[in-house]
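new request in #modeling-help
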Amino acid sequence: MADLGFVGLGVMGGRIARRLLAAGHRVTGYNRTKTKAQWLLDVGMRWAESPRAVAQAANVVFTMVTDTAALHAVAHGADGVLAGLAPGKIYVEMSTVSPAASRDLAGDASGRGAQMMDAPVSGSVSTLEEGRLSIMVGGDRSAFERIKPILLDIGPTVTYVGGNGQAVLMKIATNLSLAVHMLAFSEGVALAEKGGIARETAVAVLLSSVVASPMLKYRGPFVLRPPDEAWFDVTMMQKDLGLALELGRQLSVPLPTTAVTNEWLSAARSMGLGGRDFAAVFEVVTYLAGIQKRGIQDLDSETHAQRTGR
Amino acid sequence: MADLGFVGLGVMGGRIARRLLAAGHRVTGYNRTKTKAQWLLDVGMRWAESPRAVAQAANVVFTMVTDTAALHAVAHGADGVLAGLAPGKIYVEMSTVSPAASRDLAGDASGRGAQMMDAPVSGSVSTLEEGRLSIMVGGDRSAFERIKPILLDIGPTVTYVGGNGQAVLMKIATNLSLAVHMLAFSEGVALAEKGGIARETAVAVLLSSVVASPMLKYRGPFVLRPPDEAWFDVTMMQKDLGLALELGRQLSVPLPTTAVTNEWLSAARSMGLGGRDFAAVFEVVTYLAGIQKRGIQDLDSETHAQRTGR
Amino acid sequence: MADLGFVGLGVMGGRIARRLLAAGHRVTGYNRTKTKAQWLLDVGMRWAESPRAVAQAANVVFTMVTDTAALHAVAHGADGVLAGLAPGKIYVEMSTVSPAASRDLAGDASGRGAQMMDAPVSGSVSTLEEGRLSIMVGGDRSAFERIKPILLDIGPTVTYVGGNGQAVLMKIATNLSLAVHMLAFSEGVALAEKGGIARETAVAVLLSSVVASPMLKYRGPFVLRPPDEAWFDVTMMQKDLGLALELGRQLSVPLPTTAVTNEWLSAARSMGLGGRDFAAVFEVVTYLAGIQKRGIQDLDSETHAQRTGR
Amino acid sequence: MADLGFVGLGVMGGRIARRLLAAGHRVTGYNRTKTKAQWLLDVGMRWAESPRAVAQAANVVFTMVTDTAALHAVAHGADGVLAGLAPGKIYVEMSTVSPAASRDLAGDASGRGAQMMDAPVSGSVSTLEEGRLSIMVGGDRSAFERIKPILLDIGPTVTYVGGNGQAVLMKIATNLSLAVHMLAFSEGVALAEKGGIARETAVAVLLSSVVASPMLKYRGPFVLRPPDEAWFDVTMMQKDLGLALELGRQLSVPLPTTAVTNEWLSAARSMGLGGRDFAAVFEVVTYLAGIQKRGIQDLDSETHAQRTGR
């Protein structure tokens, strides 16, 4: 059992904190909107009034936020995590930001005698809840050994990738496939459907085929019935592809399918689908292919039709 | 137990025939090169001297060949399967050809009082051997019910997709994802590797992530060590993408990731990799990214270097 | 002055025949729909009752039709051009078909003692009428020298490209740029417009820039006001890109921008724009970018909206 | 005649300053490396010791530098252009930076009572020297009218595009076509060449066709003989495409051909061609297509071969 801290108790962060509590750890948490953390307080999480206070209360402090700006907001400043770090503490940063931003932060933590690890996850809410989350870790090797048992309480696959920033690089290199797979899946479904096969049948066949990754198994059915709330929305996904493409440019690695897919995400945002799960790339394909939409999506198409004057 | 016939005993066809024999069926087979079928004769398969003779000896006859030309060769003519069909027989065609070619052949079978079904499979040798092959079936519904028990002896997932030609359409709509996934995977590995992560680590992380489809689980490791022989080579894959893109044009369904990936397959063929497993798209990425190749691949790069005068 | 024949008096063919008449040649013509050729008969063209009769009446016979099927229809059969060829005659084929189809036809002509040349043109109606048409020629070199003076009566740039089929290859290699340029132009206009610049201004600036090819100078303004009739429609353009991509596959030359553009043409066709000038790729961009359409285009968008149930 | 200042006397900037001198203006200049400006001093340009001093000496001051960082360096700080601005002066910024960066700078200039205009150019050294340069201008309308006569001394086409930042937006929207056209041209040449047509012939036909923009007329021949020095190198071009793609993401305008082309520029940089004129995308195509390179390029390919261990 360890004294842990957790800043950023959103859809993923909150559920990870819940697992840490369930594993018997003492967890002190902070979230910008406290009400969203009430369910965790109800099961024993302690509350702190700032990221700094969280870091002060814990030996190992986690952050998991949306993007670089949000990370800056919780890490820096008088009330930030960094201000609460002290020699010997470990800071586990689970957000997906650029490797450079991650390395900068690790340098700041080091300046306070602490060690930062980048530890992004691969998987979604369902992967997490099924206890199958994969965690990549970058940073000091011996610090990794210290936190590994705690990370294994979150998910069964914990992989040491390399020095600071390497785990977020690996995360970015993984996430590009999420978007590309979803678009290729959409192409297949649309081709089958316009060729006369029922959409349900096309989805069923694809999901029993060898291309059915865990991601497609949970996200593929969204083309039949969109989820009530986005698990990972178009705008977030485009942020990740943006990181990938920028790294591709810096490292001069051509990323042909990533680049093409990114433009479809732009099209999805333009159609007003930016806040929808990125399975919405399917809507761009059906929209362009002239395939009739159904059910819940009609709302969006109406909005777009009005906006474009049609 | 049924009287079955099998024409085309290659890598996949031979192994399917083996499963049918193992399930207790009487199987009569034919292959252009008889020696390649010896192992099947050794376990009880009967031999016929022509596709026609196979069809005459069986109630249900299967064909599984490389492309439209090869299918034409075994199906038509005096010694072809069609010539051996008779009222009540069922012809199960497992090759990947265009839906139009498949429908034409079904019409020919119908003209002889028989029924043809298109029944392509999703999966590879390993999927088949693990008893996890997925089979899609197009054609007459009641004929489907008759052959379904036999198909279940091949693999556990047998899905009725629709009328003649619909199963090959579905197969084509599935296969485009194979190639796209492999290219996106290659982009991720190359990005990680050029960013300083060991290739083995990158592959391991990707294969424990949510994008790890069954296909990537067996094919992904090929970027570490190419297989001794191609399971599905670049040229074959490009044939399938060509079918997809042509259908996309006919049905006016845009296929952005498929189109881009197809050009990388052209590049792979240009680099002399046409006969290599299509995991070789990775080589195009590393070639362009200036990542040092290793081991067995050096042979190819030398050849290319010589050919291009470098 | 020469005895010429012309089969296929459509938008381009008719105007080319007109130029040949104006240059003083004796021209015998044939068109499937005779009424469309009346304006040429009025200025002195002679009429023949079949392609064969045209070939019999002429020393040099031209054909210019839509595609391979149409070419087959006028060239083969009892009434076809080939049947009217005789030793010493030259057959100048100006359609855009595959190099292989062109070479086959050249072989047939050779079998009758005549010589066929492929002589596709680069340019549009306006290029032709301004006397600036460019003609590429493939086939026998000495036959080329014989017809060169006649071709110079059509346009000022006549280039010998190589053996039979090489000129259509060159035409295909040229035409891919037409479509790609128009899509890139559309991307630029849409980006400027959504960024707040008036569409008219964006078009004006682009057309005074170094990217303003002759093609863009006449086609670019179509994004402001579509032409009354298509000069070269989406379906025709996609036929040409299809030839390019198929050649790319055969010769293993990757064609990245061509492949991507082809998918946008599919999207345009899906939106009901197949019969519109291929400048309609702009509509796909604005459609996806959520930019309000204007004027004459509204008709199409309504149709699409109805068809897709929106 | 006006009192002008010019900061950034590189390949383009220097030649523009030369034209201003030739038109009779008094020009005070500054360049980081003074020796590169000697030829201008020889024809009457005055020298100032800092950008600030240039701005103090002039009523209208120009800057033309490589990127945002370079612009920051010459505009800000104690010795920067801004420090030398005073009420009534006009600052004409000709670099290609993001619209946001341009607007920020305009705000800074406004804070000193001066007015900034963004005035990027479309065209190259040759366009400029032939007196055919096109200049786009963004900013205050009446300030535009004041500087228009001066800009007409640089090139004949001066277009008012809109408010601050709109001209660089338009420039970015134009430049994406440069790269895309060059890649499409390369695809056409490679397809023709691998199909048996001499490269010189393919280039000649394309450059006499309707796709031959002014840009292709001067840059197309680079695939036959690379220029002694890059006019606009791969890295610079990728900077501009990066600005376009980022704007496309912000404004949600899909840019399919731009995105694909950008990845080929990454490939070119990876092949060691980052400092070469962006016509080098042709090398990526021929490299992938297995077409033998010739002459001066061999040097690069050797370097790449060594680096990749081949």
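bot summary: The two ends of chain C are 61 Å apart (CA to CA).
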